[in-house]
Amino acid sequence: MLAAAGVRKQFGALAALGGVDLDVGPGDAIGIVGPNGAGKTTLLNVLAGTMAPSGGTVSFRGADVTRSSAARRARLGIARAHQVPRPFGAMTVFENCLVGATAGGGLRRRAAYARCLEVLELCGLIELADRRADSLGLLGRKRLELARALATDPVVLLLDEIGAGLTDAEAAELVAMLKALRGEQGLAVVWIEHIVHVLVQVVTRLVCMDAGRVISDGEPAAVMRDARVVDAYLGTAAA
Known about the structure:
- By secondary structure, this protein is an alpha/beta fold.
- The protein has one domain (about 1-205): Rossmann fold, CATH 3.40.50.300.
- The protein is about 40% helix and about 25% strand.
- The strands form two sheets. Strands 6-7-8-3-9-10 form a six-stranded mixed β-sheet, sandwiched between helices. Strands 2-1-4-5 form a four-stranded antiparallel β-sheet, with helices on one face.
- The longest helix is centred in the C-terminal third of the chain and has 18 residues, at about 170-185.
- The radius of gyration is 18 Å and the shape is globular.
- It starts with a strand and ends in a 5-residue tail after the last helix.
- The mean pLDDT is about 90.
């Protein structure tokens, strides 16, 4: 459904991505891990359309979207939630969500309102719909970041370290919500996360990157046992 083929990204002399292949099928739940500087967020940026690759292609449902904008990809069904939520603070939770549905998803008024109510309920924000976004705590802002992305009515959801900064209890709430979203919405999810024990509660496939390349891809437990993955994280190959 969403695929990167031989994707490269060069920043001057630095190769942030060195020929990455990634296939995301309908309903897949894929976690991406790796040390800092591995190229994880750069890959997500290329998939979302906020950054153009230096080489390779990105396709969605069989069509080449390599040069398509992030706005165009959002209309096609690719949504992105960022690590640091930046809601429109002076707007209400509902209004923030409505921006996602209309400007991001291209939904018309009645459909946009219905979609917003649906996702606010799914994200546990319906009782806060009339609250200003700048009054929310960190978990609330992360829920709103998810809701805004979901309001575009995506089929693929790209998540960048949305567990960062949460307490264990808040992370558990996030996991429960993502499981419910996958079950009710049938979304494909690609999730970058450093908190691996949280990540593996949701994903069924793990991809490890290092130095701009995929070094392991498969069932989560098998990937975490991979000597190349251990070496990337700890600097010492597994015995």
